[in-house]
Amino acid sequence: MAAIAWGLAVVHLLMTLFTRFPLGLVKVIPFPIHGVVELVVGVVLVFAMPRLLGASLGSPARTFFIGAGAAILAVWALTRYRESPRP
Description:
There is one protein chain. The N and C termini lie far apart (46 Å). Helix 2 packs antiparallel against helix 3 (60-78). By secondary structure, the protein is mainly α. 11% of the residues are buried. It is elongated. It has helices spanning 2-18, 31-53, 60-78. The chain is built from 3 helices and no strands. Helix content is 68%, strand content 0%. It has one domain.
């Protein structure tokens, strides 16, 4: 389960670095697409990941994935994922 968590962290870092927004370095992924990916990942982490991993109620893995998913969904809800108008 730790490998899955680290894998998700690496994917999230790469998405951030490749997203077309001020903190992105390469700027290839449109910001709205980044938002869609965050929404999907957040929902999967909260509702599907604990079941897919067979994490029992109260297990640290279940708590971690649900907490990470909830945090991602909170960021998604607070962010406006539309591209800035170009001059």
